[in-house]
Amino acid sequence: MKIRGGYFFRIAHVDLSTGQVERRPFDEEFALAYVGGRGFNVKLVADNLRKDLDPLGPDNLLAICPGVLNGCYLPSAGKTSFSFISPATGLYGDSNMGGIFGSELRQAGLDGLAIRGRAPKLSYLFVDDDEVRVIPNEALAGKSSIEAEGLIREQIGDDEVRVAAIGPAGENLVKIACVTSELSRNAGRCGVGAVFGSKNLKAVAVRGSKDIPVADIGRLRTLAKAGFDSLRAHRLFEFWQQQGLMSVIDYVNSIGVMPTYNFMDGVFDRADQVNGAVMEDHYKIGDGNCHLCPMCCSNVCLVKDGRYAGTVIEGPEYETACMFGPNLGVDDFSFVIRANYLCDVLGIDTISAGNLTGVMMEAVERGLLTPADVDGLAMKWGDQDSIVSLLHKMAHREGVGDILADGSRRVIETWPQLKPIISQVKGLEQSAYDGRVAASMALAYGTSDIGAHHARAWPIAKELELGANWTLEDKADIVIYHQTVRPLFDMLGVCRLPWIELGFDETQYAGFYSAVTGVETTFEDLLAKSRAIYDITRAINIARGATRADDYPPDRVFNDPIPSGPQKGKHATREDYEKLLDIYYAKRGWDGEGNPGVRLEA
Amino acid sequence: MIPERCSGCRICELVCAIEHFGVNNPKKSRIRAMVLYPHPVIRMPIVCLQCGEPKCAENCPTGAINRENGLVVLDEEKCVSCQVCVTSCPFGAMFVHDGVETPFKCDQCGGNPQCVQECPKAALVFQPEHVQGQAHRRDTVLRYAHMREVVYEEAGEPKRLRYAEIGTGRPRDED
Question: Which of A61, A284, A471, B14 is least surrounded by CB atoms within 10 angstroms?
Fold first, then answer.
């Protein structure tokens, strides 16, 4: 055997309908080809694929794999991937959660979970070292994730059991529902919470005690020390510890790509009331972070006075602050914290919820919807009461919330007149970066396998800073590189932020992988594996009916020039985008419809 | 240990386990980062404080725990793994694991604690005993000293200097 560490060579296959659990082994070939985390997930989802598979039916396979470096001694190794066929997009979906959950799952001697079926009663899955059980507990119904975590710990009698749970929205099959662990670690996107809910699965609880096998622990420690030291030496390290992702607000506003008023504008005139400095000076009470991460991006925030006094969360981070701040015309940071708290308690994704709320506000303002369409809510920009009402309606599927709860696909079906103002790709609501000013960012959103999410590729800053003379080839190249290296991080179970924010040299991961597994590998080898896996997610999407037509950015990117700020007047053109997409497909070796020609077994 | 600085990353746990057991397993660590939420949110490392009158030693039925050169040391030969020390420690700083024969505790890595080296927030500090309390003494003095401020100009730039009024020989006016 070549592999001498990193794996337990076991994935627990769980059938919730019968309660049967099989700790199924896999071979070295599987481990080498798919690496772990997202890679394992993709293979599991692909092998389970049926054309008529109902994303909310019992046959949809939910794969939860932490990644081969998750929990190992190296910077920021605390990411776990959840993959499935998305109820929001109907295509391949995944979401990624930080925290200690993945490390604990590995310590139970597993490289992942593959969950199918539907429990007869609301239940949670308890992975307790070698024992995996489905435990019915209807008392968890309607509880928030944090309450469920507490109740499960109480029932098991152990404060240190790690729990990932859904809130009421997930139980209500809301397609923007998330899965939450440790107060604020969210797998937010693609409706993973609804997949849990459809399986009557309230939570997964894990407790593990085993050593994570490492082939050469001395070498890992030496490499990790160099890695930790390089982060600490970065000139922005301490500033990052203070503000984390909240520092991005000022940056994005200064370069004129801040999503403002439902992505209409690129600058928010009151950004200085919802930025990192305001957070730090008036709300921050402590630092938090994911497992094994020195960057402590999380800011624990408390509202000390006013209407929302007593609200405490671990957050907000940039996406949430933007989607519930400038994107909704909100200039009150205490409300941003409140909205984040409500999303946490209800169990909905802050990005999708903020995006859809913005769409409703613009629709009412422009007269595209009547007040009756939105249950009589005022929906004025910055109107806090309307936002709070709408969040509750979404999570509980009441009134207009029932339509929004199904995500942007159903919104467009119900109200086709909203298509020009809704920022979404493939049915997934766009995250908080404008796609108009950098063609590479439009391509990144358009071609992302899960829809309009920035996690696959985030080339916007690079293009705006360095890309004045980039050719279309250069732009396609950077998107493909991002779509290869970032999914690789998900395969390894590590975070992208040390790399993208603090210049962490990504080739170090080849060393980490080699030290942990004992298999000497170059970074290029790992990238090639990631690329092959990206082809598989594309093949899944093709099998599910996706075509070239699904690879376009939101209409606004082509039609609405940015009205103000440093990027005033800019937008992308359809002609350029067509050319760019052709180049992108060709560089990936896909045909003109974006078909990679990969045959899926099964 | 400065709990205000701890963010709960647990790097200390893992480097400790690797240093002492040579394995990647935070459950074999001799230090633990406690992470409490949602109310109150607290992060704080827990580690042996090397007490002068250790409860673990006092209650050990076999005399396996003793103080040696300022450290509380567990003699694995004498230990019968009854775990009385684990429940006796008022801080919960004695640890057990299924795969380890006896309870284990901090030994300060022979004078160069690896957790202190690697803590990214400087929440763990390692200082000689006589330094303990110095920071508190300094804070107390500054609190007493009723700091005042003088504003002056240097090369056209306004500057501020903070100072304490001392040495007038008569009691201060109450501020």
Answer: A471
Residue range A37-89, pLDDT digits in tens: 999 999 999 999 987 999 999 999 999 999 999 999 999 999 999 999 999 99
What is the rounded distance in angstroms from the CA atom of residue A264 to the CA atom of residue A562?
A: 7
Q: Give the integer Cα–Cα distance in Å for A28 and B153.
A: 73
Please, what CATH class does the domain formed by B3-126 belong to? alpha beta
Using CA coordinates, name the residue in chain A closest to B27. Answer: A209
CATH 1.10.599.10 correct for A439-588: yes
Measured between CB atoms, does A300 come within 8 Å of chain B?
A: yes
Instruction: Test B18 with A217 for CB contact under 8 angstroms.
Output: yes
Is A241 close to B9, i.e. CB distance below 8 A?
no
- B145 has a pLDDT exceeding 90: no
- Cβ(A94)–Cβ(A39) under 8 Å? no
CB pairs under 8 A between A and B: 91
Q: Is the CB of A523 inside 8 Å of chain B's CB atoms?
A: no
* CATH class as words, domain A227-429: mainly alpha
Instruction: Please tell me the predicted confidence (pLDDT) of residue B175.
Output: 45
Same CATH fold, A227-429 and A10-207? no
Whole-number mean pLDDT of chain A?
96
- Domain ranges across chain A: 10-207, 227-429, 439-588
A181 contacts chain B (CB < 8 A): no
Interface residue B10 vs chain A (CB under 8 A):
yes
Q: What is the DSSP string of B85-106?
A: HHHH-TT---B--TTSSS-B--
Select the CATH number that applies to the domain covering A10-207 from these four: 3.10.20.70, 2.30.140.10, 3.60.9.10, 3.40.50.2300: 3.60.9.10
Map out the domains of chain B as residue ranges. Answer: 3-126
Res B4: pLDDT: 87
